[in-house]
Amino acid sequence: MSAIVLEAVRQSRAEEHVGLQPTRRPRLVLVPTGAEAVRAASVARANAQPMRLTRFGRLVVTLLVATVVSVLGVGLAGQLASATGEPRTITVQSGQTLSGIAARELPELGIAEGVVELQLANSLSTTAIHTGQQLVVPGR
């Protein structure tokens, strides 16, 4: 009985494969090397279509360029503003000292020289400052 069942299974499988096309196996392709590869690459570049941007692509590129230009413009304007030598005003925060402000705001000077510059610019007779006080930082 098992031989009859086995034969029936073989026949049904054979019938299934009759209606199907045999699948093609991928074939190996020879890749050019050396001077042949250079020649093939130049031919491929010559036949290639130029890259075309969609409307959305042009919008993205335009926004990217505008962002880069604006960031560079703001950075350059900030550098030019700080290089003009005009004094600017800062507000003293809690815990800040005149020497700390001098070190942060006037890094090109020593701390003692920076403190003296801040005292002269703000008409201070001592190094005592308080929270909320407006200090003029001389430009350099």
Task: Explain this structure.
This protein has 140 residues and is mainly alpha-helical. It has a domain at 93-137. Helices cover 57% and strands 6% of the residues. The chain contains five helices and two strands, in the order H-H-H-E-H-H-E. It has helices at 2-19, 35-47, 55-83, 98-105, 111-122; strands at residues 88-91, 134-137. Strands 1-2 form a two-stranded antiparallel sheet. Helix 4 (98-105) packs across helix 5. The longest helix has 29 residues, at 55-83. The model has no long low-confidence stretch (mean pLDDT 82).
Strand order of the largest sheet: 1-2
Strand content: 5-15%
Count of extended strands: 2
Number of helices: 5
Which term fits the overall shape? elongated
Q: Roughly what is the average pLDDT, rounded to an integer?
A: 82
Separation of the first and last Cα atoms: 106 Å
Stretches where pLDDT is under 50 for at least 5 consecutive residues are none
Main sheet: strands, sense, barrel: 2 strands, antiparallel
Helix content: 55-70%
Write the element-wise H/E pattern from the N-terminal end onward: HHHEHHE
Which terms summarize this structure?
57% helix, 140 residues, mainly alpha, two-stranded antiparallel ribbon, elongated
